[in-house]
Structure formats: C-alpha cells, structure tokens
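Q: Convert this sequence to structure tokens.
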Amino acid sequence: MTFWEGVLVAVAGVWAGTINAVVGSGTLVTFPVLLGIGLSPVTANVTNTVGLVPGSVSGTYGYRRELTGQGRRAAILSTASFAGAIAGAVLLLELPPGAFHAIVPVLIVVALVFVLFGGRITDWLAARGRHRTDRVTVGLWIALLGTGVYGGYFGAAQGVLMMGFLGLFLTDSLQRQNALKNLLSAITNLVAAVVFVLTSHIDWTAALLIALGSIVGGLVGARIGRRMSPAVLRATIVGIGLAALVKLLA
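A:
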C-alpha cells in the first residue's frame, strides 16, 4: 500500500464512520476503496468489517442519551444481532461468491418502502388489528435476526434495513430508533469481526487505517444525526439507501 493509498483508505474510514452513525451503508464507501488498492473481495470484506468496529462503537457512544430507557429492549434484540452475525460470517466463509448478494437489492427495496411508507403501512395494519408497540415482538426479533445475518455477511445498508424494521414495529421516535440501530450494528460488526479474526486473512494496515478514520467519523456522524429533524433523517436514510441499491445493482 502506498502513502496516498493509505490516505485514501483513512479518509474513506472517516466518511464511512459518519454515514454509519447517521443511518448505515458506510461499507459502500470503504469496500470499493479496498478493492481499488488491490485486495481480493473476501479479504476486502473481512478487513472492512474489522476496521469499522471502532467507528460503530464511537457512533453508539455519541447516541448514548437516546439509548436511555432502552436497556431491556436492547438486551433482547442484541441476541438476534449476535446470532445473526455469527451465521452471516459463516455464510461468507462457506458459500460461493454471489450466493447471498442476489437477495440484497430486494432487502434494500423493502427497507426503503418501510422508511418511506412506514406510517401508512402501520395505519393499514392497525385497521386490521396490528399495532406498533414499545415492546419487542417475535416479528421484530426475527427481522433483526435476518438483518444480523446480512450484516455479518456483507453489511452494506444494514442500517437502512434495521431502521425500516424498527420503524415498522416500534412506536419510539426516529432518533431513539437510530440510537438502537447504532448499538445493534456495533454488536453485529464486532461479532462478525471476531469470527473473521479467528478464521480469515486480514490486511491489518488497511483495517487500522479504517478503524482510526471511522472513530472520528462515528463521533462526527452522531453529532450530525442527533441534530437532524425526523424528516431530514428519513430523507437521508432514503437517499443513502437508493445510492446503495444503485451501487449493488451496478
């Protein structure tokens, strides 16, 4: 890795950490950069996951106030993220390339529909006896288990998916949902990273540069995201989600 390639990786880490704290999809910044400096797709993927863990933690710390009162909910949902991350990481190591990517665009479209039309969907469901609640339901746990599998495998736009599911099932404010998303994403990334460290080849120089950049980006992103109105935050989620969809389809 040359000096300027290292600078590019670090800058990508800052940007990815910022995006992840606001909504997610930071992987769509760092992953192409790692491919561009010559890493193989699998090595780039696992290196990226390891590198983004500190940024996920710093983003969660920046949203700590919005996590107040969500301890029980977070504890229950973290089991889904934990189990899903292990399953996703194993799938990455065992399945042929592209086997899981085939459903990623569909998942992102579903998430964006939830973000854009969540209110209308919940009104429709309420008219048929389905109501959002402040408690963890079986449906939400299963949805986040699936998101954890996706996050452990690749992770791009897992935040968009998670925000879609949290908005569909929970009554809490968008900011508190975003704080919970940051915590669960951090758990997913950490668990998958541990699996990769134990089983895969990691480019530690690139991982360290992404880690340093993502720590800064996570703190910056938390400051930006916590000051956004629900409308602006929702628009940001949709914009990044559409960008993720275009990149993945391309």
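Residues 25 and 157 are 4 Å apart (CA to CA).
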